[in-house]
Design brief:
Helix content: 40-55%
Radius of gyration: 47 Å
Number of strands: 23
CATH superfamily of the largest domain: Glycogen Phosphorylase B
Largest sheet: 10 strands, mixed
Bound molecules: 6-O-phosphono-beta-D-fructofuranose
Strand order of the largest sheet: 10-11-9-6-12-13-14-17-16-15
CATH topology of the largest domain: Rossmann fold
Length: about 750
């Protein structure tokens, strides 16, 4: 209210000043025009009479002057004649009685012999006085004064001021009403909505921001408020979680605990994570830029860690709008709407991307490490690009840590085997770890790589090498033993080359105990309605389309199931979410075709008018949209032919806070060592998998619940915060003198 009052007062004052100034100027001009009009008339009259009056005035004959004035007749009014002493000689009757004995204008004219003018009130009438000298024989003989009625001047002035006052009142009133309305619609109402929204957020309800009309005005405010609310909610959730844990006497790793732990362990040292895949890429969709989270287990795992720890994440810029959304050095805050860490993007040329990523990493190392009977391809050019890309990432990391004292660098995955040594060579004080997210095969299998010694030497530049399982650690140490000159300490699981020691340890990766972003919680009925299906049972598979994931095997197991158990036809729909992946590689194009053909074939085989056994959703699915599929599935199938860990399995359990749902899990996925309550299958055994599907559908609710509770317990306890905490503390524990020694 006060604001509106202030605004309206300011409007009134401004309008008054503007209208007043304009009225003043207009009235002044008008007056000047009228005065010059009077002056013109007076000059005409005065000068017209001068010739006739001058001889009479020279003679000092008042009678002669009077005669002349009389002769002018009644039409001529307002004239007085004065002698050379400025004494009145004669005047027309209309002014005669009102004239004072002396008039300053006349005195002035006579003394200076020049015309003079002014205004005088004579007999209650305001008059314009014009006096002009009378000259006879070049001698001043008196003056004639002309008196013109000027009372209309005041009237006109008054009228103009009144008109301006009315105009001011009307204008000020109209503007005030409009301003008050604008304030109400654009400020008061949106502010009320925003404060209502803030109140809702404060109470912990996840309410979307109101649709305020003026995004320019209120957008930044809404953004800041939602950030604040999110931090508050996080703090509240952490406090509740801590309180719950304290009550139950347990000590589970949470985001808050990791944050606290990192604060103590790192003591302000910079944490840099390096991966090929970026946590968020920006892509053009028409004329709009869209932020996209990739289908990547690595990102699912590392993003919560970075949100908790802060620091810098260096990654390959893969989106076509990545440049537009980063600063000149390729940096931006992530998450975009509530930045918790910095993403630093690295740009690669098309050739580098092809050789390093598609070629050496994914046609070479990927099939080399996954034993799934796809032959690795090793091309010398790809190897050269791999080294070049590693060098580029090393330069970026070195630039990022140049001012940081004893930073920690966490390198992710098989794309960067050469990177640890490159970083350590320049910055021996940096503690460097590399975590290998895929399996490490036995030494014979790995030995076929033509650049085995170089890869191992690059990795051994690190202070710490992490794998998902002890089995992979053993395979790695054996590979080193066979391929390089190095001392292996099998008791401490450490390798010494020259002066440098590298520790090799298992750190089974995991997921956050809860979905990081608040997902849209839709019901099962709504999900089925959106999918356009009716089904008594729903199964789900969530994958990148990759030949290691065993998708065709799973589909064939479903076919076997429907053949063996026809009573489940028209009752079960299996929904396969499949994100296209590494599509420039021939083997990936082939697997896409194989999956599509198999889906088509099975659907044709069993479908009825109202039912299809498999719903194949080939697209990139946003991470938060997958929640509903996990949550409402009766079972989830993870049937990898070989997998380092597989986080879909863990994520499925983490989402099932209803303690229901069955997990069918490949024994060749690392996750099967931890999730023992899943139905463990051999993905090559179709009959065994079909049997697992039947068992999942027919399992008693009690057994389902018991199994899920145990799996959830395992995921909650061995979560990603614990993984990061153990890995970072192990890395931070490495003695400084060891970290200070040059890598050989
Ligand atoms: O498992 C290895 C890995 O790098 C994962 O971290 C990730 O889930 C997957 O491969 C993603 O592959 P890409 O980054 O090539 O799409």
């Amino acid at each position: 209210m006060k604001f509106t009052l202030r605004l309206v007062s300011a409007i009134w004052l401004s309008v008054m000043l503007v209208i007043g100034a304009f009225a003043y100027l207009q009235i002044r001009d008008e007056r000047e025009r009228l005065v010059s009009d009077l002056q013109r008339r007076a000059v005409l009259i005065g000068e017209g009479l001068s010739d006739a009056l001058e001889p009479a005035a020279a003679r000092q004959s008042s009678a002669a002057v009077e005669r002349i004035l009389k002769k002018l007749g009644p039409a001529q009014r307002g004239i007085a004649v004065y002698d050379r002493f400025a004494t009145l000689m004669a005047a027309t009757p209309d002014v005669a009685g009102t004239l004072p004995p002396s008039l300053p204008e006349v005195t002035d004219t006579v003394s200076r012999n020049l015309p003079t003018q002014g205004f005088r009130v004579l007999g209650d009438v305001n008059r314009f006085v014009y006096a002009t000298p009378l000259i006879y024989d070049n001698q001043p003989v008196g003056a004639v004064a002309v008196f013109l009625d000027a009372s209309h001047l005041n009237q006109i002035e008054w009228d103009r001021w009144s008109y301006s006052a009315i105009r001011f009142l009307v204008l000020a009133a109209v503007i005030s009403i409009i301003a008050a309305l604008v304030v109400k619609v654009s400020i008061t109402r949106p502010m009320a909505e925003i404060s209502e929204w803030t109140r809702a957020l404060r109470s912990g309800r996840p309410v979307p921001p109101p649709n305020v009309a003026d995004a320019n005005l209120f957008g930044p405010l809404a953004l800041e408020v939602s950030r604040l609310a999110r931090s508050m909610q996080r703090a509240q959730a952490a406090a509740q979680q801590e309180a719950a844990l304290r009550l139950s006497g347990e000590s589970v790793w949470t985001e808050a605990r990791l944050k606290q732990f990192v604060g103590q362990q790192l003591a302000g040292r910079l944490l840099v994570v390096v991966s090929n895949r970026e946590p968020v890429s920006h892509v053009w969709r028409g004329s709009q830029i869209h932020a996209q989270a990739p289908a990547s287990g690595l990102v699912t795992a590392m993003d919560p860690v970075m949100r908790a720890c802060g620091g810098v994440w260096v990654a390959h810029a893969s989106g076509d709008a990545d440049r537009e959304t980063a600063d000149a050095r390729g940096r931006l805050g992530v998450p975009v709407d509530d930045p918790r860490y910095t993403l630093r993007r690295v740009w690669l040329t098309k050739e580098e991307e092809q050789g390093y990523y598609a070629g050496f990493s994914n046609e070479g190392l990927w099939p080399l490490c996954h034993i799934v009977h796809t032959r690795p391809i090793f091309r010398p050019d790809d190897w050269a690009y791999y080294l070049e890309a590693n060098r580029k990432f090393a330069d970026t990391v070195l630039d990022q840590i140049k001012d940081a004292e004893a930073p920690l660098v966490l390198i992710q995955d098989y794309h960067f085997a050469a990177l640890p040594a490159l970083i350590k060579a320049e910055r021996p004080d940096a503690r460097v770890a590399i975590f290998w997210h895929i399996p490490w095969p036995n030494f014979e299998a790995f030995g076929i790589c033509p650049w085995q010694p170089e890869l191992l030497a690059g990795m051994l530049g690190a202070d710490l090498i992490g794998f998902h399982t002890q089995y992979y650690c053993n395979n790695f140490l054996e590979t080193v033993d066979r391929a390089l000159e190095a001392r292996i300490d099998w008791e401490r699981f450490a390798v010494t080359r020259g002066e440098h020691e590298t520790h090799v340890k298992p750190f089974p990766i995991s997921v956050a105990p809860e979905f990081v972003d608040e997902p849209p919680r839709i019901s099962r009925a709504e999900l089925l309605r959106r999918l356009g299906i009716t089904a008594e049972f729903v199964g789900v598979g969530v994958e990148r389309i990759d030949y290691t994931k065993g998708i065709p095997e799973r589909l064939r197991a479903l076919r076997y199931f429907f053949e063996t158990y026809p009573e489940y036809r028209e009752r079960l729909v299996f929904v396969q979410l499949a994100a296209p992946s590494r599509t420039t590689i021939k083997r990936y194009q082939d697997i896409q075709h194989e999956v599509e053909d198999t889906v088509r074939e099975i659907n044709q085989m069993f479908q009825t008018k109202t039912w299809r056994p498999i719903l194949y959703l080939k697209a990139h699915h946003e991470h938060r949209d997958i929640w509903a599929y996990y949550r409402h599935a009766d079972f989830c199938m993870v049937t990898s032919l070989h997998d380092g860990m597989n986080l879909v399995a863990k994520e499925f359990a983490s989402v099932r806070d209803d303690e229901d749902g069955v997990l069918i899990l490949s024994r060749f996925a690392g996750a099967s060592h931890e999730l023992r309550d899943a139905l463990i299958v051999n993905p090559y055994d179709l009959a065994g998998m079909a049997e697992a599907i039947r068992a999942a559908l027919e399992m008693s609710p009690d057994e389902r619940r018991l199994r899920m509770i145990r799996m959830r317990h395992s995921v909650v306890e061995h979560n990603i915060y614990r993984w990061a905490g153990l890995l970072l503390s192990e890395l931070a524990r490495i003695p400084v003198e060891m970290a200070g020694a040059k890598a050989s």
